[in-house]
Amino acid sequence: MPSTHTWIRNVEAAALGDGDHGEDTEGLAEAVDTGREPDYIERNRAAWELWAPRQLASGRKAWEEVDLHWGIWNIPESELQLIAGIEPGHDVIELGCGTAEVSAWLARRGVVPVGIDISGKQLRNAETLQREFRVSFPLVLANAEEVHYEDASFDLAVSEYGASLWCEPRRWLREAHRLLRPDGRLIFFTNSALLVVCTPEGGGQAGERLVREFFSHSRLEFENDGPVEFHSTHGSWIRLLRRSGFVLENLIEVRPPPNAHARYDFVTLEWARHWPSEEIWVARKAL
Q1: 3-class state of residue 128 by DSSP
Q2: The CATH homologous superfamily of the domain defined by 4-285
Q3: What is the rounded distance in angstroms from the CA atom of residue 56 to the CA atom of residue 45?
Q4: Which among 18, 84, 205, 206 has the fewest CB atoms less than 10 Å away?
């Protein structure tokens, strides 16, 4: 799901990217040097524990839908065809599942999903919906950067504004690669680069001017001890995917239809019809 720091608190969206000389490594260095869980994991867990109660109603609405609807603009899977080729019996891991509507939709079609999230309260929301809709699949309380499944356990990894926004890119991409079988696919959603640089310093809706630096550190903090987001430039994502062992298959810069309604209020339909507000990255684990 999109940057909750933007759409729940209506405060600053991120500055962009890793810079033009390579990706930010601050969070990774901390974990390597100290052996502790990176500080942003605990901070983001605390934020989601706070936000989780307001997610149940929107999660229930998503579970009720016959078709799966993706991203900010609720684009149907029947149009995007992101899950094409995933058949009953295939194994899928959702990295940062929230209320797990993606996993629920897959489970109803005979796919075997696992939902991973760092928030116990979010997983309890998902468990509530499992009981209501009589759909069952594993829900695991875990950091998507370090998942306790064996290598090559899944055919598809999905992150709809989950790990793709709230985890350090090198760490979660490397873990997704480990978890996937050879030729397995990775699909992830994130805020578009242009949306972020056009968002005012004080938050609110994106405007028609560039108001933030494009080349900056990928780790973004908006308040002391608050949640942490990660945003990268297109060039940085491509380098990170390649270094992690992925082959890039597609980058979809979403343009919503004229009658679309946004799930959140940090971007208008008029803006998103002119410029991309979100990006969908599709990659495959190299054989």
Answers
A1: helix
A2: Vaccinia Virus protein VP39 (3.40.50.150)
A3: 17
A4: 84
